[in-house]
Amino acid sequence: MSELVGALTSYPTAVFSGLLGLVAAYWVLVILGAVDLDGDGGHEGVLDALSAKGEVAGTALDATAAKGEATAAALGDHADGAVGIDEAGAAAGAFNLRRTPITVTVSFLALFGFIASYLTMRHLAPLAPASLPGWLVGTLVLLGSAAVAIPLTSLATKPLEGLFRTKEGRKRDELVGSLCRVRSGRADDRVGQAILRDDGAELVIDIRVDFTGGPAVPMARGEWAMILAYDEERQAYLVSPYGELVDETEPGAEGRARMVE
């Protein structure tokens, strides 16, 4: 047991152990917040403290990275196998680590980095030449573990991409030209509602019939109309009867498809 604790708290595994501990604490707080066990918001102070610790940990990692760069520059041939910070950053972009929220990505990076660092220090580090100082071996293992964690994180987060993908709704101006169907009993220049299908979802929108191009004849339930513009003052869409625009009482299949788009 003492050997395991020593391995987890020794450099470089301790870096990933600390990061993994912060990640675990974060997700515990997320779970507690999800079930609302602390309705008074008492966990906010803990979150602030955790954020401050995360900044300290980030500073420590930056210092470690700087030390690794200095080591690589000083040792020349021995540093050929190390992964530089710039290369690691480029690799992170190439592996598309932004497909999930940063908290999820960091969680996987911490987990895989921890596993790679622990196994490497336990099984491969003892095989290193005795002439190499321990801090150099640890730094190389740290950088190598991070390099291994990046592609593994990319593979792990790929199936989760769809869960965190958000899609913005169409703007009001983008609905101009779409077809809708009157939902209310009547629709005129003062009142009216219609149904608009947007990507499979039925939206109920407020409409006002534009009578500037024809007689003031109210529209009835079920009639088709085309959106002409959005009236900011009345907070409703201006529409015109479909028949007045195309000389048809009801759009065909091709026309109805525009309602779905």
Description:
With 261 residues, the protein is of the alpha+beta class. The chain folds into 2 domains: 2-164, no CATH class; 172-260, OB fold (Dihydrolipoamide Acetyltransferase, E2P), CATH 2.40.50.140. It has 8 helices and 7 strands. Strands 1-3-4-7-6 form a 5-stranded mixed β-barrel. The chain has a two-stranded antiparallel sheet with strand order 2-5. A hairpin with a 2-residue loop joins β3 and β4 (201-209). The radius of gyration is 31 Å and the shape is rod-shaped. The termini are far apart. The model is unreliable at 35-86 and 253-261 (pLDDT under 50).
**SSE pattern, N- to C-terminal:** HHHHHHEEEEEEEHH
Question: Which geometry do the CA atoms define?
Answer: rod-shaped
Question: Given the helix and strand composition, which structural class is it?
Answer: alpha+beta
Q: What's the rounded overall pLDDT mean?
A: 75
Number of helices: 8
Total DSSP E strands: 7
**How much helix, percentage-wise, in residues?**
40-55%
N-end to C-end Cα span: 63 Å
